[in-house]
Design brief:
The strands form three sheets. This protein has a seven-stranded mixed beta sheet, with helices on both faces. It contains eleven helices and twelve strands. The chain has helices at about 5-15, 25-40, 45-55, 60-70, 80-95, 115-125, 145-150, 155-160, 165-170, 185, 220-230, and strands at about 100-105, 135-140, 155, 175, 180, 190-195, 205-210, 235-245, 255-260, 265-270, 290, 290-294.
């Protein structure tokens, strides 16, 4: 692959997915795209790029972009964001939406589904304590291939061993030979949709929580700022944005501000109290929810 071919490939990836591939990452492109080249009966990446330049190469371009985007995921990845979700975010939203009785959650880069299913497992444990409440989890990803796996809810022994407590495995999965499948009551809590974050997503409506973890790290500064700006337009004033440990809004947008107590959580800046918000408890009052003290 010539330098010109590699530059074309880098430009294609940035335009289609926002992925900024560094100039010294040609080895990464080769390792991920050679299987795509063989599948399309070409012997090297130079020929693959030639095919990409042809009109009518849309299916090939889709395959290339999906192969280059990272789909690493496992259950309860990094643990702390899920602790925050259970102990901080959900209790706070329950207080604010005591009339609406509905919470909408969006996982923007769901990959093979472990993140949204982890959230669904947490909520499933709370459902019996909160009759009448509705929890909607939307999971999106650029790749239709990984979403297909996510929808099936079927995982290998290796995949369920990564981050999933044995008690949760037994409670939420059914074993089928050497594989495990999410139980229907968990699977039904999540809906999946293919979506590119670079495109308009305002049609999805408003959300109380948006998980956008380990996505912004692949974008340049301008793209990060644009995505954050548009996320701010679909998050409720009392909502939360959850980013990855290596990500921040600082220096990119004034639409969000860091949570004053929990690193990695962000809230809309200058958000207003919703009309259905209950009166704030008097100083010193202890609010209890599912064993959590706030």
């Amino acid at each position: 692959m010539t330098p010109q071919d590699f530059d074309y490939l880098r430009a294609l990836l940035k335009e289609r997915s926002g992925l900024v591939l560094a100039a010294d990452k040609q080895y990464l492109a080769e390792s991920r795209l050679l299987p795509i080249a063989r599948r399309h009966n070409v012997s090297n990446l130079g020929e693959l790029v030639t095919k990409l330049r042809d009109r009518g190469a849309e299916p090939l371009a889709t395959s290339v972009v999906e192969a280059m985007t990272t789909n690493e995921s496992f259950f309860f990845r990094d643990k702390i964001p899920f602790d925050y979700f259970r102990d901080v975010i959900v209790p706070d939203l329950i207080l604010h939406h005591h009339r609406r009785h509905r919470i909408r959650i969006w996982c923007t880069a769901a990959a093979t589904g472990q993140e949204p299913y982890s959230l669904a497992m947490i909520l499933r444990d709370l459902v019996d304590k909160m009759p009448g409440w509705r929890f909607d989890i939307l999971a999106t990803d650029l790749s239709g291939e990984v979403l297909g796996k996510a929808k099936s809810g079927i995982y290998s022994q290796f995949e369920v061993q990564r981050g999933l407590p044995i008690q949760q495995l037994v409670k939420s999965f059914t074993q089928a030979g050497e594989q495990w499948q999410i139980k229907p009551e968990i699977r039904q809590m999540v809906s999946f949709r293919q979506l590119n974050l670079l495109h308009d997503f305002s049609h999805l409506g408003f959300f109380d929580v948006v998980f956008c973890r380990n996505v912004l790290i692949y974008f340049d500064q301008a793209t990060k700022a644009d995505v954050l700006k548009r996320l701010a337009q679909v998050i409720e004033p009392t909502g939360y944005l959850v980013l990855g440990a290596a990500e921040t809004v600082v220096g990119l947008t004034d639409a969000f501000k860091p949570h004053n107590q929990h690193r990695g959580l962000y809230v809309p800046n200058a958000g207003k109290e919703p009309t259905d918000a209950p009166p704030k408890p008097a100083a010193g009052t202890v609010v209890k929810f599912a064993g959590v003290r706030r």
